[in-house]
Amino acid sequence: MSKSTREPTVIDSALRSLRGAGAKFWVAVALLSIIVGFGVFAWIVQLQQGMGVAGFADSSFWAVDIANVVTFIGFSYGGAVVSAILLLTGASWRSPLARLAEGMALVTVLIGAAFVIPHLGRPDRILGMITLANPASPVFWDFIAIVTYAIATLVFFALPLVPDAAILLGTHPDELGRFRRRLYRLVSQGWTGSAGQRGVLHRAIVAMAILIIPLAVSVHSVLAWAFTLVSRPGWHESIWAPYFVIAALYSGVALAILVVAGFRRGYHLEALIHAKHFVRLGYIMATLGALYTYLTFADLLPGAYVGEQGPVEIVHEMILGHAAVWFWLFLVAGTIVPILLVSVPRTRTISGMVVASVLVVIAMWIKRLIMVVEAAGYDRLTMSFDDYFHFTWVSIAITAAGVAAIPLLLMLLFRVVPMLAIDEIQEVAADDGSTVQRHAATEPAPRGHKAAVVAGSLVLIGLLGIGVGRAQPALAETVTDPAEIVATAASVGPEVDLTATVTSAGQAVADGSVYFYASTPMFAGDDNQILVGKVLTGADGVAEVSYVASEIGNVTVTAKYYADVQGAPVTSQVQVEVTEAVSPYVPAPARPLDGTGEVLVRFLFALVAVVFAIITVQVVRVRRTLRTAG
Hints:
- By secondary structure, the protein is an alpha+beta fold.
- The protein folds into 2 domains: 3-465, Formate dehydrogenase/DMSO reductase fold; 483-578, Immunoglobulin-like (Sandwich), CATH 2.60.40.
- Helices cover 59% and strands 11% of the residues.
- It is built from 19 helices and 10 strands.
């Protein structure tokens, strides 16, 4: 069949979102707009009444808004995978999905970045990130990375519109309307479809595809480093950068499946998007899900095994404590069930992939929320959990507004531009020597690589389950008889000497770990305890430690001995009057690599400048080619 007979089918499908919309479309737009508007109203209430009305507490300074930032920007990376990576690997089956995936990437990165505004509490602080920039802060570079990635995503979305706009202007100008005709003339002015123009445009799109992948990796790596470059237990994990990247890919591909399924059904694109597209995306999603499951255990097991108090308590609360229901819901519904739905031939259908994707999207948001809230609610001074973030109607409304904004913006976006990459679909069909109509909606799902998917997924899940049980931390102490501890303290000038004697059944306890704490009003009140030392008792059951006081006054010293790692500590308190103190703040000595930070900052600024130069060059080359032809 000739190209002329093939074109109307592709063009007609692409025009469906541009033609007059029915009542269902406008009802959906109205409902989604109400949800978004109510979220804006909730944010205004938060501005007027403070962050507490949204469920924040003093300890829960990072909560749902940051979880939403990570989640929604992660969705954007899924769009980049479906479009950019598949483009570079020559996967021609991506062509009907490309515009939808790129639109999803653009919309979700904007929504994710917008969640920073309610998180800050004061929107005027956003300007301060520029005027009072701190290049030593990962938050600053997070801002730079998101802005750079968003601009690159916009250009990557816009470049393929050049030939599509020319095609629609040439074939159906009367159906476009005045606004779209003007826009399409501006976009495609000078496009003739010559070999030279196609070569320049193709190279520009490939360059942007190559560029957008490391940019997306950098965004999620810097997001992870905003957490991990602090010493808070649960966040200070070196694995979090790749962990965040894989999570973004996993949840992003899942949302791409949902977006494609929604537009396929809403605009009857069954002749172009069919079962094989969903199954192949499902294979990608299942592979990423297995990898994310592995990284989840690789993140949790080392901290739990070593036995450090903060990480152990956070892992315990996550697996067996108050957050356990949500964690296991994420693990089962967000990883195991979706992998099985992709692996089993009976459920490897469009409906099965949609169900799996819904589970992944919801479960991954829950996992991000747990990661943020659990660590933020842990008080490092008391080494216990303090007030947690709790949902209120304000935080729920703001989150729901972000969710509703995704379909709303996509529906409005594709009222302006075609939802299909017309030129690319036609080019792929021509290269294949076949017609677009060969992609029948009833085409059976491909079964290639079934053994690899089933075996790889189930073996990985099985291996992760082997040996997972409750293990005692290394060097655990178990004492059957009741223990007693007696603490003493003496102050000589600024030096405070602390002593604790541990006995059990009248006998001295040797090699027992004793934790010494001293009260301080430095942070919030007189009852705050800071750890001043951890010492093993000697053969006589005595542990001794000294520290230099940084403030004068009456100090409460607490000695704790854990006779059983699963039980409450045995404690003893004593008062000591400190009459002299020495300020702990002294200038830091010169370090060999002191100037490295400044060099690194200059290098990063130069790298960002190079990225913007590459983006600018691609746009200028395409526009120059069009002007020359025009």
